[in-house]
Specification:
- It holds the Pfam family Hydrolase_like.
- This protein has about 160 residues and is of the alpha/beta class.
- The chain contains six helices and eight strands; from the N terminus they run E-H-E-E-E-H-E-H-E-H-E-H-E-H.
- The chain has two domains: about 80 residues, HAD superfamily/HAD-like (Rossmann fold, 3-Layer(aba) Sandwich), CATH 3.40.50.1000; about 70 residues, Rossmann fold.
- Helix 1 crosses helix 2.
- The termini are far apart.
- The model has no long low-confidence stretch (mean pLDDT about 90).
Length: about 160
């Protein structure tokens, strides 16, 4: 699929930002910043704040996307959750009514609210980066709460 694209590192039309883990450096962010200031668009796979690695909590790309947006005074195009288009594509591809779909996730804002904004049910799982205080402070009400994914059996069978 990559051969369908023309890669232009000198004057790119867009910078696509995904997960780089420890590959994010000040130098890399400065290079991206300069391309954006020169007119490139910023496309972000998502804007998650953090994720969990074997070493514990780690910054995800969201803080880097936000920093770049602030620096160039322009919004990124977010193509993943919680962008409604992400969910609408799934609804269309699956040819299922949104009310017959449930998004299961551990992020109250990205997974659950993103789904609910598209009339998809949101099931919050208390694993991964689930944070009871965060859930309470958002006011977002999941359609169901699961202790683990194994609890799906109880929900549907």
């Amino acid at each position: 699929m990559l051969n369908e694209f023309i890669i232009n590192n000198n004057d790119p039309e867009a910078i696509i930002l995904g997960d780089l883990g420890s590959g994010f450096t000040y130098d890399l962010l400065t290079k991206i910043f300069k391309k954006l200031k020169a007119g490139s668009d910023l496309i972000a796979m998502h804007k998650n704040r953090f994720w969990i690695t074997k070493g514990g909590l780690s910054l995800d790309i969201g803080p880097f996307v936000s920093a770049l947006e602030y620096a160039v005074d322009r919004r990124a195009i977010v193509v993943g959750k919680p962008n409604p288009e992400y969910f609408k594509m799934a609804i269309k591809d699956w040819d299922i009514l949104p009310e017959n779909i449930m998004m299961i996730g551990d992020d109250i804002e990205i997974d659950i609210k993103g789904a609910q904004n598209c009339n998809i049910k949101g099931g919050l799982v208390k694993t991964g980066k689930y944070d009871k205080l965060k859930v309470k402070s958002t006011g977002i009400k999941p359609d169901c709460i699961l202790s683990t994914l194994a609890d799906l059996k109880k929900l549907f069978f």
